[in-house]
Amino acid sequence: MAWESAFGTLTWIINCTNVAQAYPARKRTYVIDGVRKNGWFALDFTKDELQSVILTQAIWSRTRRFDSVGYSILSVTDLLSIVKQPSVWLNVQHDTFYKEHGLNMRNYILSIQKRVSVDYISSPELGFLQNISGTVRGKIKLVFSFLDKSLLDHSINQTYGSLLSNLTLIKSIASGIMVPKTYIWPVTKDNYLQPSTSIVAEAHNAGLEIYASDFANDRIIPYNYSYDPLAEYLNFISDGGFSVDGVLSEHPFTASEAIGCLASLNSSKTDHGEPLVISHNGTVRTWPTIVQLMMAQMSLIVLFK
Ligand SMILES: *[C@@H]1O[C@H](CO)[C@@H](O)[C@H](O)[C@H]1NC(C)=O
Ligand SMILES: *[C@@H]1O[C@H](CO)[C@@H](O)[C@H](O)[C@H]1NC(C)=O
Ligand SMILES: *[C@@H]1O[C@H](CO)[C@@H](O)[C@H](O)[C@H]1NC(C)=O
Ligand SMILES: *[C@@H]1O[C@H](CO)[C@@H](O)[C@H](O)[C@H]1NC(C)=O
Ligand SMILES: *[C@@H]1O[C@H](CO)[C@@H](O)[C@H](O)[C@H]1NC(C)=O
Ligand SMILES: *[C@@H]1O[C@H](CO)[C@@H](O)[C@H](O)[C@H]1NC(C)=O
What we know:
Layout (H helix, E strand, L loop, with lengths): L1 E3 L14 H4 L5 E5 L2 E5 L7 H4 L28 H4 L4 E5 L3 H6 L4 H8 L4 E7 L2 H11 L4 E5 L6 E2 L4 E2 H5 L2 H5 L4 E5 L18 H7 L3 E7 L13 H9 L8 E4 L2 H11 L12 E4 L5 E3 L13 E5 L1
Parallel strand pairs: 1-4, 4-5, 5-6, 6-9, 9-10, 10-11
Antiparallel strand pairs: 2-3, 7-8, 11-14, 12-13, 12-14
Helix pairs in contact: 10-11
The protein binds 2-acetamido-2-deoxy-beta-D-glucopyranose (6 copies).
């Protein structure tokens, strides 16, 4: 299953490709969610033009050994050429922005639906999920992605903080939520863990699946974990009396190791069963098979199903 972000993080394509070298004159400025951004934007390019653009490492402290391999930007339907029956997790990050520029994500998704089996659609814009829910519900799981609590979801003019107190509203539209990990285990200013919130239980009580995001091995994780990323995953899946339904990680092997080798998941609980590892590359592997080669900057969803 693939986390396909062609229209998500790649909206603003400067920092993860060589587009600046390939098209030096195509720099533009746009306002996205109220913030001015300079750079190179996917909507200014045709797909053919993007064929000469290759993906590079966006986080410069990480290895650059994949930069010269020549991975190109794929469309969702291109997945069919690298995996036989890809099932896809599509993230639509900026529907409002695209709408302002005459592009319709809803029609795009409907147009690819016959060729690609999309299993999940996530978005931080509840208005977008609401718009497509009538059309796709039942076949596709919709997941509402929370951003920082103080930020506004421009599609419905409410902050993520206020939406958090209305899970009933979200359940009427989506079947799951994705939250930054600090929503579950808040952190003090000096980087120590605070007691967990009750969000996982609240989401499950509301009938929502819950996924945690922002995992990576090379960030300064809270000191309580003693610099051990495995300990951090375990705190979300088998400790504290709750378990999230999946994690979005930039280092999926570590997530897989935590889940497959170290977690003592209680399989009699309905919250989770056989874990499924879902990679950016479109490979679905039922645990314990390890995910295949990941590009250094790829994110991966690990679902516990
Ligand atoms: C969804 O948005 C489209 C325009 O993109 C609009 O025509 C349609 O009426 C909307 N549907 C719902 C259910 O809001
Ligand atoms: C949100 O607020 C802005 C500015 O007040 C307005 O233009 C827009 O129509 C509102 N959107 C919704 C979905 O209410
Ligand atoms: C949840 O949202 C719905 C729809 O906007 C609203 O009618 C309801 O009052 C809200 N509930 C709470 C507890 O805020
Ligand atoms: C994290 O460590 C600090 C310092 O030892 C401690 O006060 C705090 O209770 C710990 N947090 C949790 C959730 O155990
Ligand atoms: C597993 O979960 C079930 C139901 O919540 C509980 O009755 C059982 O004691 C648990 N088993 C272990 C080993 O924790
Ligand atoms: C995806 O996985 C296949 C093996 O299934 C591998 O041959 C290919 O190079 C991988 N592609 C990327 C972009 O990692």
